[in-house]
Amino acid sequence: MSTVNARSPGEAAGDGQETALAAVEARVQESLRQRTARARRAALGYPILVVVLIVLLWEYGTRAAGVPPFILPPPTLIAQSLIAHWSMVLHHGWATLVEILLGFGLSVLIGVPLAMAIFLWPAFSRSVYPLLVSSQAVPKVAVAPLFVVWFGFGLLPKVLIAFLIAFFPIVINTAVGLESIEREKILLARSMGLSALDTFFKIRLPSALPTVFGGMKIAITLAVVGAVVGEFVGGEEGLGYVLLTANGSMDTPLLFAGVIALTVVGVALYLLVELAERLAIPHAALRQQARGGETA
Amino acid sequence: MQHDAILPAAPAQSPDDVLIDIDRVTQVYAGVGSAVRALDRVSMQARRGEFISIVGPSGCGKSTLMMIAAGLLPASAGTVRVAGRVVDRPQTDLGIVFQSPVLLEWRTALENVMLQAEARRLPAADAERRARSLLTAVGLAGFEHKYPHELSGGMRQRVSICRALVHTPPQLLMDEPFGALDALTRDQLVLDLQELWQTERMTVLFVTHSIAEAVFLSDRIIVMTPRPGRIAREIGVDLPRPRTLAMRDSAVFHAVSREITDFFLEQGVLRERAAGLSR
Ligand SMILES: Nc1ncnc2c1ncn2[C@@H]1O[C@H](COP(=O)(O)OP(=O)(O)O)[C@@H](O)[C@H]1O
Ligand SMILES: [Mg+2]
Fold it and tell me: Are A188 and B96 an interchain contact pair (Cβ–Cβ within 8 Å)?
C-alpha cells in the first residue's frame, strides 16, 4: 500500500520531473568536466611554474651575488655552452644512449629468463638466489676499474657495468611477480586441464607483467648511472667523458650542459619504458593496481 | 554418529545414480607445533543432478573438503570417487567457483568465460555461443566486452559462474561463492543460480555459512561440526521447485533453519548472550 502511494506521485509528474533531473545531471557532469580540466592544467602548469621560478631565481641570484661562473654559472651561460657544443654533446650523448640501451636490453634479456629459472627450478633458486643477493653488496662502482683492465676502454665495459647495475631489480621484480599470483588462479587452471606451459604463459606471466615493468622502470634509471660510471673510469666517449673533461678544464657551464643532456636521456628512456608498459598493459586501472608491487 | 548411520545405506542406492562418493575422507595438516585435524572421516554422496549444501562454522574444513573433492588436494586418508572412478589427480570434469571471482584482469568478461573453452580446446564458435547465452542468463547481456575492473563485485562473480559452466560440466563446486557480496546481490545470485541449476541439472556442492542460502537452494544440507569437521546431520529440504523468496517464510523453511541453528547453538558455534534471553 504505502509503496504504491510513494511511487505514484513520481509517475504522475512524469516528464516534468524527468527534465528537472536531466538538468541537474547536466550541471553535475559539466562541473566534473571543469574540475578534471582544471586538475589537468594544474598538473602540467605548477611544475612548469616552479621550474621557471627556480631558473629566474638562479639567473638573477647568481648575477646579483656575483657568484663566479666556474662555481655556479647562470642558466643563460649554460644554454650558450649547450648551443656552442651542440654537435659534440649530441655525438657523446648518442654514445651514452647506445651503452644504456645495450646494458638495459641485456639486463632484460638475461634478468627475465633468470627470474623464470629461479621460479621454475627450486634447486636452482636455492643455489643462485643467495649468490645473487650477496652480489648486490659488492659496490659495482668499485668493480668498474677492474672491467677496464679486463675489457679495455671500448663499449663493452660500459655496457657490462650498466647491465650489472640494472639487472638486479628486473630479476627480483620478475621473480616476485611470478611468485605472488593468487593461489586460486593456479587451482582454477589445473581444474580446467590447462597445461603447465599454458598456465605459465597465459596466466602466471601476464599476472606478473605489472611488477616486471615496475622493475624495468627502476632498471632503466640505474642503467644510466652504470653507463656514466663506466665512462668515468675509462674511454674517450660518452657524456660521462664530457663531464670529466669539462671538469678538468674548469668549464662548469659545459659540465652543467652535460648533466642536462644526461637528464634528458634518462627521462626520455623512462618515458619509453612507460610507453612500452602502456602498450603491454592497456588498462590504466591494472597498472595502478600493481603500483604497490614495485619493490626495491 | 550420524554419518555412521548413513554408510550402510550407500549400497542400497543404485550405484550409477551416485556421481560424487566421498568415503571416510580425513585431512590432517602438518603444523609447526602440532598437526591440525581439519576433517575427520567425512563420508557423503551426491546423486546426479542433486543440489547439496555444506554448512559449518568457519575453519571446520569445508574448503578443504571441496579441494579434496576437486582432486586439487590429496586427502590424508579416505577416497573420493566420481562416477565410480577414484580421484587421484585434479579433476577436469567440473566447474569451480571460489569466494573471489578469480578473473584474469586483462581479459574481458567474455574472454574470461572463454578461457575455459580454450583450455579444453572446445570448438570456438559453439563455445562462444554458449558463453554469450550464459552471460545473458545471469543478466550480463551488454557487458560481454567489459573488463573485470569495470564490473561490480556481483557481476564479476556471475562471470566466474558462467566460466564454471561453459563446458557443461556434470558437477559444479562452489566455495562460499556469495560470501563477499551484499545481501540484495546475494538474493539475486541465489535466484539466478537456482535457475541455472534447473536448466543445466548439474550436481552442485555448495559450501556456505549462510543457513538461509543453504535452505533456499538445496535438496539436501550437510551440517558439519566445528574442527575437526565431521558430518553431524544431513537434512533434506522438502520445498517445491522453483523456490521463491516468499518461501523463506514457509513452515518448512523455518523448521530446517531452526534445526541447523539449534545444532550450532548446541555445539557452541552460536551463543545467545544471556541465559535469561534464550527461550
Ligand atoms: N594449507 C594449510 N595448512 C595448514 N592448515 C590449514 C591449511 N589449510 C587449512 N588449514 C586449517 O584447516 C582448517 C580448515 O580449513 P578450511 O578448510 O579452510 O575451513 P573452512 O573452509 O571451513 O573455513 C582450518 O583450521 C585451517 O586453519
Ligand atoms: Mg573456506
Answer: yes
- Is B194 within the bounds of a domain? no
Q: Which residue CA neighbors atom 14 of ligand 1 most closely?
A: B61
Instruction: Give the number of other CB atoms < 10 A from CB of residue A154.
Output: 12
Ligand 1 pocket, residue B35 CB under 6 Å: no
Q: For residue B270, how many other CB atoms are within 10 A of its CB?
A: 13
Closest approach of A188 to chain B, Cα-based (Å) = 7
HEC string of chain A equals CHHHHHHHHHHHHCHHHHHHHHHHHHHHHHHHHHHHHHHHHHHHHHHHHHHHHHHHHHHHHHHHHCCCCCCCCCHHHHHHHHHHCHHHHHHHHHHHHHHHHHHHHHHHHHHHHHHHHHHHCHHHHHHHHHHHHHHCCCCHHHHHHHHHHHHCCCHHHHHHHHHHHHHHHHHHHHHHHHHCCCHHHHHHHHHCCCCHHHHHHHHHHHHHHHHHHHHHHHHHHHHHHHHHHHHHHCCCCCHHHHHHHHHHCCCHHHHHHHHHHHHHHHHHHHHHHHHHHHHHCCCHHHHHHHHHHCCC
Asked if B239 and B209 count as a contact pair (C-beta separation under 8 A), the reply is no
Q: Which residue, A259, A212, A235, A243, is CA-closest to A161?
A: A235
Please check whether residue A290 is in contact with residue A210, taking contact to mean a CB–CB distance below 8 angstroms. Answer: yes
pTM for this prediction? 0.82
* Cα B97 to averaged position of ligand 2 atoms, centre (Å): 12
The answer to whether the CB atoms of A184 and B70 lie below 8 A apart is no
Does a structural domain hold residue B152? yes
- A38 pLDDT band, cuts 50/70/90, is very high
Please, which residues bridge with residue A218 across strands? none
Taking each helix axis as running N to C, give the angle between helix A75-84 and helix A15-65, from 0 to 180 degrees, rounded to the nearest 10: 90
Instruction: Write the pLDDT tens digit of every residue in A144-182.
Output: 889 888 998 889 999 999 999 999 999 999 999 999 999
- Within-domain flag for B57: no
Stated length of chain B: 279
Which residues from chain B sit within 8 angstroms of residue A205, using beta carbons? none
| A to B CB pairs, distance under 8 Å | 56
Report chain B residues whose CB lies below 8 A from the CB of A208. none
Q: What's the pLDDT tens digit per position in A92-129?
A: 999 999 999 999 999 999 999 999 999 988 888 888 88
Q: Does B112 touch chain A (CB under 8 A)?
A: no
B1 inside domain: no
Domain region containing B123: 94-169
B228 lines ligand 1 (CB under 6 A): no
Distance between CA B126 and CA B203 in Å, rounded? 23
The ligand 1 atom nearest the CA atom of B56: 22
* A182 neighbourhood in chain B, CB within 8 Å: 100, 102
Domains in chain B: how many in total?
1
Question: Pocket of ligand 1, candidates B25, B54, B60: which has the most ligand atoms within 8 Å of its Cβ, to mutate?
Answer: B60
Q: Is the CB of A187 less than 8 angstroms away from the CB of B94?
A: no
The answer to whether the Cβ–Cβ distance between B119 and A182 falls below 8 Å is: no
